[in-house]
Amino acid sequence: MPVERAKIIFSGNVQGVGFRYTAHRIAEQKELKGFVMNLSNGDVMAIVEGERNDIEVLMNLLRERMPNYIHDARAEWHTATGEFDSFEIKF
To answer: What is the CA radius of gyration of the chain?
Structure first.
C-alpha cells in the first residue's frame, strides 16, 4: 500500500493530559513516522507518515482513548516525503 502523509490538528483540552504520549505509543505500535507537538493556541499537531489505514487507526484510537479531551480532529492528506525515521514527541 502507498505511504501517505497527514497533518492532523486535534483541538479541545488536549494539552497537559498525556495526549502526546498516547499518540506516540499508538504511532510506534502502528510503525508510523513523524512527530506530535503542542501548538501555542492549545491545539496539538501531528505530522504522520504511513499507510492511510494505519493513520486513520491512530486517529480513531486517540478518539476512543481520550474522548473527553478531543473536541475536533482535522486531517489534511498529502504525499509522503519519507523524511522521518521514527515518531517523536516535539517539545
So the answer is: 12
